[in-house]
Amino acid sequence: QQQVKQSPQSLIVQKGGISIINCAYENTAFDYFPWYQQFPGKGPALLIAIRPDVSEKKEGRFTISFNKSAKQFSLHIMDSQPGDSATYFCAASPGNNNDMRFGAGTRLTVKP
Amino acid sequence: DAEITQSPRHKITETGRQVTLACHQTWNHNNMFWYRQDLGHGLRLIHYSYGVQDTNKGEVSDGYSVSRSNTEDLPLTLESAASSQTSVYFCASSVGASVTQYFGPGTRLTVL
Question: Which residues of chain B does A99 touch, with a Cβ-Cβ cutoff of 8 Å?
Fold first, then answer.
């Protein structure tokens, strides 16, 4: 049973558009929520992360929105670029326990 | 430059054979992890270690073992490879109480 559910499985966006990927979790012990970006043939790389004490975190064109009561969080990519085409994974981890649980991934394609 | 490496990058083996995948990091990180990545499942934790002589089972540990004899290495052994273990395997590491994990480039394992 997947503890972190991610949607959509795939997403196609035009250059300059907004990409939105959603995740939901069940375990209320989770308190660290990272997003990883993975290019073909490479390992995942940390993109941005949030703790539940804030509702939003922004780094450049990437924003995480967090809704603790709904147990949902999302990644927004503003002004999407073809170079953003990759697979994105959300994840969740409880406290300092490194037992990270990942979503199934979203394959993003940004068309020029 | 400090890094995390995996070897081999590609491996084909037969059912029933013992296989060992290597992971080596030069960051002096305490924590090391092994994941498998399968379509529709994202990354799933196999085993992890918080330091030398420490190993812990993850979500999908059956059929796998690890040992940690030094800080730099965490080899993953498949005792008797099965076709269900065909996957891409990623090693990761993190420092101390930090939950930020750094991933290696992956090993694609095919069990025939």
Answer: 45, 48, 58-59
